Amino acid sequence: MRAQHFHGAVDSAGQPLAFTVDNGRFSHFGAPSPGSPPMDATDLTGYTVLPALVDGHIHLDKSFVGDRWHPHQPVASLRERLAQEKDALATAAPMADRAEALIRQIVGWGTSAVRCHIDMDATTGLRNLHAVQDAHARCADLLDIQYVAFPQAGVMSCAGTSQVLQQALESGVQVIGGIDPDLLDGDAQGQLDLLFDLAQRHGARIDIHLHEPGEQGLRQLQRICERTAAGGLQGRVAVSHAYALGEVPLARALQVGEQLARADVAIMTNAPGDHPFPPVAALHALGVRLFAGNDNIRDSWWPYGNGDLLQRAMLIGYRSGFNTDAELQLALDMVTTHAAAVLGLQDHGLGEGKPATFFAVRADNAAAAVAGTPAARLSMRQGRWVVPPPA
Questions:
Q1: b/e for 245-260, b at 16 or more Cβ within 10 A?
Q2: Which of the residues in the chain have pLDDT under 70?
Q3: Cα dihedral: 333, 169, 298, 109 (round 10)
Q4: Under a CB-based contact definition with an 8 Å cutoff, are residues 117 and 177 in contact?
Q5: What confidence score (pLDDT) does residue 383 get?
Q6: 4, 40 Cβ separation under 8 angstroms
Q7: Cβ count within 10 A of residue 157
Q8: What is the C-alpha to C-alpha distance for residues 345 and 382, in angstroms, rounded to an integer?
Q9: Most buried by CB count within 10 Å: which residue of 68, 180, 191, 371?
Q10: Which tens digits make up the pLDDT trace of 210-222?
Q11: Could you read off the pLDDT of 310-320 as tens digits, one per residue?
């Protein structure tokens, strides 16, 4: 295959960008060198070229994408929601088919990698994991998946779940999940002891769903920071949602933010519509790693979402009051480079020698892309078009 030269595009700041791709990697940025061998040329005039999108939090096992419309069913409690969800999934199209449909949909927007939380408990075992793995096997050339063993129904309060989590890690799952150690499990010490022990023994990362409110949620964050530092797991622990950081006065949130930064515990937010969420810009200024994901997409939890991470960045910016180009760039970083760093994707991004994996959007620059979320996209993965230019 001949090398490919791309010209006419701009970078995130709106500056002219040209580059060459050879053997699936970025080989050169700028005009071709004198004496370069013949190469194919692609004109990207009108496009901004950006690092590929990375979804830091998605549930491929839950979505009804690829199935009929399922009207949302209100419930009165978390336990009711868990029961309703199991009933709905039991009558839905096969999980592998739905997961594949969603994978192909998000890839079309420019997503190249995801962190996927998979429900696991003593009744489901690894069944959901195997279904999503089957779906991924059908389109493995389109997307990388990092799996999270997610104990949706609790760890200590759901008999047999700890054994399933152990089995998941032994089968190659890379991340151990948790959920509301006090509010759902009623045993914060027990849950955190188990999760951190499993992570250390298996060399796994940790990603804990935390919906606990106010000071209760902040205490959990502080416990997680302390255990992260004590276990030498800095840079390998994330907390998803952390609503508490948006429910307390800013000064109090920043006190905990300083601990998060010191322990290098990352925070994921998707800027959900009916919840306060962490103060992104203020925490970022302290050095806290912020990343984002779609979370639930058209499932039992809510009917919203199409999987477009650029739209998710816009929602984060909109709800955070972001207006400047720098602020909009931060929102984009949360679904590109910041998410990639949390997942440990060291070769992500635009740079000589890195895999030629990127997406391009019709916009003047990155800020305009976030603000306007244009639908016109191109994407390339390791030097091969996933969404090619129009013929």
A1: bbbbeeeebbebbebb
A2: none
A3: 40
A4: yes
A5: 97
A6: yes
A7: 14
A8: 14
A9: 191
A10: 999 999 999 999 9
A11: 999 999 999 99
